[in-house]
Every structure is written in structure tokens, then in C-alpha cells.
């Protein structure tokens, strides 16, 4: 996508986009010029400096060779030939060639030619050293002047680069200042005005319409959407206020319904009991429990779970509980009490309830129970073994056709140290974050290890659900436990 296409997508006014694009173009251009000058300086000055240094070193080595040859010639008898020794002449020739190449590269061809001629003469007549020294001195002097010129040129180039850098920074700062000012005037300030007006309107301190505020052309669409949003916010605030008023009105009723579902009478003589209900949605649950002393001295415990959550399920649970309790207080058997609960749900096609009624007889040390589809009905024996009390009939709902004979009653021994545990399916179906249920096996294992008292049993089960990482808002969890009193 072209650069201009990218900038056209930015949410900026045209002037701001143009200034930003101009800033980037100028920055790239100045940076390119800066790089080109730096490269030119390096490629122009550095090689010449290397050539000058190389020529200077070669001249020094050449003069060393000349002095060595001169020393040998002086030590030779006068009758001997005066030519340069064979082992030094090639070295002198090679150094001279290097000097000529380096000097020619920096524009000192004349001095290099003079030195070359002097060396040629010297290699034939070893005593002709004066012309070599003179030519070498002139070339060294010219090399020094050329080196000074290069240093001045490098200093000038560095100064030029510094000025260019300062210019780049200054231009960029000016351009960025211009962009910042443009964005402040065209974007930030209009948005600040919009924010201020929104704050005043949402708090009810102004009745002015948004369209009366000053807007930039590009912001008018946003302004219009904000005006519509404010209208919706006002309507929502009004609706929320009405809903809050309704909730405050219903709070007392809701709390009273919760008290009805969880209220328990004192157990009869010789029995101790403890129970609790944790509702999935606030304080209203479909679970209900009760403990009551029967006229004949026995103690009845009942627990049920109406399908669903919320106020509707709570109302049906309260009606079903009241019907069962009324039947038991009149001395009716558990089957009649279950039929009374059925009468509450007979017209509810989408609702049903589980129900367990357990009657403890501390004198006979027996327990009689009716289990209408309730999942967790357990006896933890004094020795630690856990036994499940089987169901004796279906769940209670409109689909039951013969409520008078649908549910049977069972009984078994229940002695000191035994604990009766009633719980809704919210206990065994408690799920952790990965969806894994606690399960009946975990409940059974925990009961086998728990201290056999009703309160300790209930608290241990709730602790296990918490440790499992269950979501308390997923389902109701209700536990009721009872045992024969120890006489303390």
C-alpha cells in the first residue's frame, strides 16, 4: 500500500495528516543527505590519508636501506666496485615503486618521479646518495602538507555534518511542534469538549444538546453518535432506577421466603441434628429442609429439591415443605405426606421435586424412610462403613398417576454413633473449573473419615465442595445430618 494510502486511513484531519506526512518526508530526506555526505567524506578522505601514511612509511624504510648500503660501501676498499650490494638493491627498488604508486594517488607525481630517478642513479653508483636524500626530503615535506590539508578537510566535513544534524533536529522539532499544535486544535480540544459535555449530561447538570457545542467537521459523526448514546443512557438510568426500587420492595419478601425454606424446629428427645442450605441464586433456592418432633416422641427429618432456581422454584419449595410438615404434624405416615407434596405440583408440568422423609426412633433405635428419587441418603455407621438408603419411589411431579400408593416405606437399625446424612444432588454434582464433578465416591470416602457428629459432618462436606473448587452459583447445595444424642 502506498504511504499516502496509509496516512489517509489515519483518523486525523487533512491538515494534520499532511503535516505528519511532510514531517516524515523531510526527516527521511535530511537523513539521506546526511548519510550521503558522511559516505562521501569517508570514501574521499580516508583512502588518501591511508596513501599518505603508506608513502611516509615506505620513505623511512627506503632511507634505512640507503644508509645500510652507504655503510657497506664505506667499508669496501677503494679499488672495489661502487655499485649497491645485490641484496639491498631489489629491496630499494620495490620500496621506490610503492612510494611512486602512493604519491601518484595523492597528486604528487613530480616528487615521486624525482625520487625514482635519484634511486635509479644510486643503484648504479652507490656513492650518489645525496640526490636520494634530497628527493626523499622534498617528498616528505609535500606529504606533510598534503596530510595537513586532509585534516583540515576532515574537520570541515565534520563541522558540515554537525550543522546538518542540528538543522535536521531543528526542522523535525518545528514540524513536530506544528503537528502537535494541529492535533491539539483539531482533535484533542474537540474531544475534550465532547468529554466535558458527556460528563455534564450523564450527571444531569446540563440539558443542552450536543449539537449546540462547537465541533470540527470530521468529528460531527462522532458527536451525533454520542448524542444518541446519551439518550440511551438516560433511558437506561431511568429503567435501572425503577428496577432498583422494585428490588428494594421485594427484598423483604425474598428474605422471608428464604427463612421459610431453611427454618428447622428442634428435634425430638434423644436426637441431635444440623443442616444448612447454600442457594445458587442469592438467597432463593429450590432446596428445603426441616427437622421436627412428632407427637409420638420420634423425630422426622425431611429434605427436598424442586427443579430450577430463583423465586418460582423457591415458592413451590415453600408450598411443598408446608404440605409435608402439616401432614407429619397431624401424625400421618410418610406416604401421605409425599402425596401432600404431589398435590402442590400436580398442575406444574415443568416442575418436580425429590423428597426424602426419615423418621428416627431413639427408643427402638430404628430409622424409617421414604425416598422419592432423592440422590444422597446415607447412613454412616459407628464403625465407619457408609450405606446408601435406596429409593422407594419416583420423584414427585404431575406425571405421577397414583400418589396414594406410589411411594413405599423402608426401615433399618440406627444405633448410637450412626449418622444419617441427607443431601441434594448439588453436593455430588459440584464441578470444578474443568467441569469435573465431586462425585458420590468422594462423598462416601469423606464420610468414612469424618468425626460422627451431625455438625462436623455437614461442615466437612461443605469444606470438601469448597476445596474441589466448585462454583457456588451453579447449583443449590443442601446438607442435613442427624444422630442419636449421646446423653452429654
Q: Which terms would index this structure?
A:
488 residues; alpha+beta; Phosphatase 2c, domain 1; 6-stranded antiparallel β-sheet; 5-stranded antiparallel β-sheet; 11 strands; 57% helix; elongated
The proportion of residues forming helix, as a percent range, comes to 55-70%
Residue stretches low in confidence (pLDDT < 50, at least 5 long) are: 6-13, 207-213
Mean pLDDT: 79
The CATH homologous superfamily name of the largest domain equals PPM-type phosphatase domain
Tally of DSSP helical segments = 11
Number of strands: 11
Summing up helix and strand content along with how strands pair, one would put the structural category as: alpha+beta
How many structural domains are formed by the residues?
3
Describe the structure.
The protein is an alpha+beta fold. It folds into 3 domains: 3-177; 210-253; 263-484, Phosphatase 2c, domain 1 (4-Layer Sandwich), CATH 3.60.40. 57% of the residues lie in helices and 14% in strands. The chain has 11 helices and 11 strands. Strands 2, 3, 4, 5, 8 and 9 form a 6-stranded antiparallel sheet that branches. A 5-stranded antiparallel sheet has the order 1-11-10-6-7. Strand 6 and strand 7 form a beta hairpin. Helix 4 runs antiparallel to helix 5 (130-202) and helix 6 (220-262) runs parallel beside helix 7. The longest helix has 73 residues, at 130-202. The radius of gyration is 53 Å and the shape is elongated. The two termini are 88 Å apart. Mean pLDDT is 79; it is low at 6-13 and 207-213.
